[in-house]
Amino acid sequence: MTHAFSVDVEDWYQVSDFEEIVEFSAWHWYESRVIANTERTLALLDEAGVRATFFILAWNVHRHPELPRMISAAGHEIGSHGYSHGLAYEMGEEPFRRDVERSKKLLEDITGTPVVGYRAPSFSITTRSLWALDVLLDLGFQYDSSIFPVRDTLYGIPGARRFPFPITRNGRTLTEFPMSTVRYAGRTLPVGGGAYLRLLPYWYTRWGLRRLERERRAAILYVHPWELDPDQPRVRVRGKRGLSTHYYRLRTTEGKLRQLLSDFRFAPVAQVLQLAPA
Length: 278
Prior knowledge:
Shape: globular
Number of domains: 1
Largest sheet: 5 strands, parallel
CATH class: Alpha Beta
CATH architecture: Alpha-Beta Barrel
CATH superfamily: Glycoside hydrolase/deacetylase
Distance between the termini: 25 Å
Structural class: alpha/beta
Number of strands: 11
Order of helices and strands: EHEHHEHHEHEEEEEHHEHEH
Helix content: 25-40%
């Protein structure tokens, strides 16, 4: 079984939990660590012989034009994570369209290759923003990986379909690859990586993926480059849930990620979905 591995490429200060004190207009004042952290991520993947999908927050491309180039040169798929890390359900349809279109064009211009995959910041395609899927179809994306079939104050569509499925509108089709979950004791539990990989013991992630393999289902995992950077600057925030987990257990990420890449087989999202080249 080959699972999909993905990286949401953001700098340490660009996360939703920091919005209350780090305004988008002030991003250029903050120390950038995204190149070094992405290089660290690339090195781990190269060591394991794994190719992945990198969903790039395109604002960083203005600051670091070399960012998508070095990812693409290493053989990884380039996807869009939007431009400004705005949450879809807070932005509204037209600002969302402009944001995603801008990111797609910028990434394609820099790399010279089509960008066919998208992931919303903080998985913010929810029941409040399902119109975003039509926007992605309009913009020519082949797949989305933004829906999380769990209940959370920041994201999630409880009861959503848990495995890849087509969304068809007017003869056009977008494949949704929901973030991975397992069913246990009547509950839907997340096993998608990211904070769940950092905060929970490694056996939990391994158990979840083995359970999906027994069901013959491919999982999708994700990580942020800043999660490999325990020495990043500290700011005091409450986070959108009233408690931010941003800095929790950062020193555990690299070891867990090495083990994960050793224990399972991974490939880019488009490959796992068996999508035809654009």
